[in-house]
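Researcher: Last one for today. Full complex below.
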Amino acid sequence: MSAFVKHTEGVMRGIRAVALTLPVLAACGSAPKPSPQLEAARQAYTQAASGPAARFAPATLNNAHDTLLRAEQANRNGDDARREFADLARSRAELADAQARAAIATHQRDASAITLAQAQAQRDALLAAAANSRRPQQGVTSTQPPPNPLLGLADQTRQSANGTEVVIASGLQFPKNDSQLSPQAKRRLDQVATALQQTQPAPTVTIEGFTDASGSSARNQELSQERAAAVAGYLTQKGVPQDRVTVRGLGPSEPVGDNATPAGRLGNRRVEIHVDLPAANQ
Amino acid sequence: MKWPVALLVLAACGGSSYRIPQSHVEAPRQSIAAAQQQGGLDPRSADRLELAKYELMTANRLAHEGDGRRADLMYLRADTDARIAAASAQGQKASAETARIQSDAMRIQQQVRDLIGGGS
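Model: Here's the assembly. Have a good evening.
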């Protein structure tokens, strides 16, 4: 008896399962199979919607969504233009993705431009502060309109036993622990070399190198000498007579800026060119 | 007698009374022109632009054949693909500019570090 009941229940379960499945199977059978174009459109939309388009190109993404719904409807209805609808939906999804990526790239470019502008401003401020940190020295007189080109390049002029001592220092700063001439320094030295060659008889030139107060005394002495030698080498290479040039390394002595500040230290990492200009040459 | 004539005209027009909005016809031409004006398109964007041109030609042919509904969809697709070409080119250019700007910024930031640095 119980075996009969079990058998009957098993049969009934089978009938119920078939009864539940039949409508689904029937529905599947009646639904038109999606075309490859529609499959591609669905995939393109899914990809766009899960990417940056939702945030950066929402209007285009919505448009793509609406077009995809039209394509689904056209597919269900067996519309003649169902493939065209699907292709359009895919293109619009790809457009949303492309617009979003372009917006991100543009944003990154603008952000980089801001970073660059900030870095340039910071560098220019440091250079300006270094130039301003030079303390006025005793015996300084204001420069006059230059009858001699060296006077036109002078940062300072002082009365000397023979005439006038011209001091050229601006634009001759160095990075830390470095004696390489910057492009700015070379441009400045080109002007100095030309002016020296225009001055006859050739004046005596003393080139003094300096460092900031950081580091060991021995290294600073060496570095200041290297800086002065680099300037002297460049000038002689440009035609200034070597026998008229004297080089001195003075380490951190005679600071012109505050060694406690970056700008001050930069101002101290310098070379000064002293030209003894006889009165007859002025 | 008039009805058969009207039916014949309709048949000659492909049997369709679908009117393509003028804006749909003009949009792809404008989008293609805009993409071309960007100049120097990368290969991918250039390919997309060529596709848009081909679709525009196809749309014109369909319209000429009287298949207005398909032609309309093809005009819309040509417009979309031309805009993809423009957006893609814009993104590529912006990325290239970003790389150049970042390189400049890194160089200047190094200069700043050198200027600020505490060494002699």
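Chain B touches chain A through 34 residues (CB under 8 Å). The radius of gyration of chain B is 26 Å.
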